[in-house]
Predict the 3D structure of the following.
Amino acid sequence: MKKKLLLIVLTFLIWTVIFTLQKPFFLIFYGGFSQVFNVVRHGLKLDLSTAAYLTAIPAIILLISSIPIKCLSGAKAGKLLMDIVRLWFCISSFLVAVAFVANLALYGYWNFPLDSTPIFFITSSPSAAMASVEWWQALLGIIAIVLTAGIIGLFFHPLWMIYGKNVFNEAPQYWQCFPLLLLNGLLFLFARGGVTVSTMNTGQVYFSNNQTLNHAAVNPLFSFLESMAHQEDFAHQYRFMDDAKAQLLFRQLSMPLATDSSHTQVLHPQVKPDIYIVILESFSDTLTKVKNVTPNINRLKKEGIYFEQFYANGFRTDRGLVSILLGYPAPGAVSLMKYPRKTEQITSIASHLAKMGYDRQYYYGGDADFTNMRSFLINQGFQHITEDIDFPVESRLSKWGVPDHLLFNRVESDCLHNRKNKRPMFTVIQTSSSHEPFDVPYKRLGDKVLNAFSYTDHCVGQFIDFLKKHQRWSNSLVVLIPDHLGAWPRDIDNFSTWRFHVPMIWTGGIIDHSQVVSTLGSQQDIAASLLGQLGVAHSDMKFSKDLFDPSVNHYAYFMMNDGFGMVTKENQIIYDNKQHKVLIDRGYRKGANLIYGQALLQVLFDDIASK
């Protein structure tokens, strides 16, 4: 009996020690080692909770073995129960090792603790998910996982060899069940985080204004499992206020302002232009200010309409595509593209243009099944999707598939082939070369990352030059918009406004004159702005605002992994939902945007839940 109790207690303590030892490693990789004591101290409650979950299986099996039932006693039953325990330790050691190594490897790219995002990427397209990983990185990761799992096994092997060898062969008695049942109950309380209304969550370990220290305190396995558990619970997430108040505040954001100004028309009226949306992988406003990297983008800023106060809605491509193409603020904590049943119910630019007789095509040099992209595009009504497999094998030169210059060449070839087509065309081109590992067939700059951006910039410039020579240029509109900021600058801070600041440029023969637009907006506003220029009603896109309509309450809205930012002329605010804390609050009306940003996020998740 004592052995069983001791096994449960020591198993729980060993798991806790293992999770505690992970934190110094994280801090060695990402800085802040001098704060290791505070990180360990604040992260302990989450480590205890995770340790309780992992201890629960052997604890329950030990409880079952104490029930005096014939089928549960004897050498055969004892061997079976011991084999189940061994299997559980193999599985749990592997899971902990994978979570630990994956968190260390990915944090430098994503700047938030491990969540369900890798699972979505891997299951939608394994080859595309691995495109950013060098072979030696993958090999190093596998070796690290095996070594970590082996070290964890070394912690538990002597414990169960000494105390667990004959523990399942002891004669069971009813009275033994009560202390074991009590110990299982204590494990439940540790796992839950106590007896209060609030259950354990990753936000409880946040303690610092330095996000890296907060993320170091988070148990990566718990963070991953929490993210998986909350994927579809949209209706109960982000409850800041009662629904009636949230709806009222959201309507206030959408109410027309008193103004004498009329809608600004920047395109020649009464026409159906060919529309090209070029989605630039990882470009940012910061990047365009680095000398000699994006000469073509900077040239086009002066030739067309440059939106100087424009923001990405999110931090990853799958979020950017939702906002750009659907006029819908993509949530940061979950990828909407994972849910075709929901995205098919959201109106898109393509679905509106289909009613106007537009041909609709999408060009991407990678795998169109990555992040559920194919279903996402088909549900919008794209008639033709060009992807990596539509190119010769020898053209798939990069890990992401076809490099950008060949992608644009295909678009140009199709334009020439369709030059006699009288129907207006809606074409979306998604670049990919300015993404890790930045291997491009181009050598202009010494820095590998900046060289990749310069390569894509060069491809864009050549494409625009091609269109200018095309007979349909006079009736063409090209929208250049990044999907999100990525890779540059290298030290990305998710909780800063510049992290989401991206350039948007409209150019083409259909534009009357060049200008700089200072109106605040974000990717969700492209749809209403574009449709508004075409004279198309877009009231079914309630989250999208027409940037050329002065009667609209203009603001920029964006979301990081579990928080939001809202920028207006009066106030710039960033709120971290994990800490339930405002991290940035600037402007002459400090705090003014907080309640509106919370209301918008709550209404957004209500809208997602309703679909």
The chain has two domains: 2-229, 270-552. The mean pLDDT is 84.
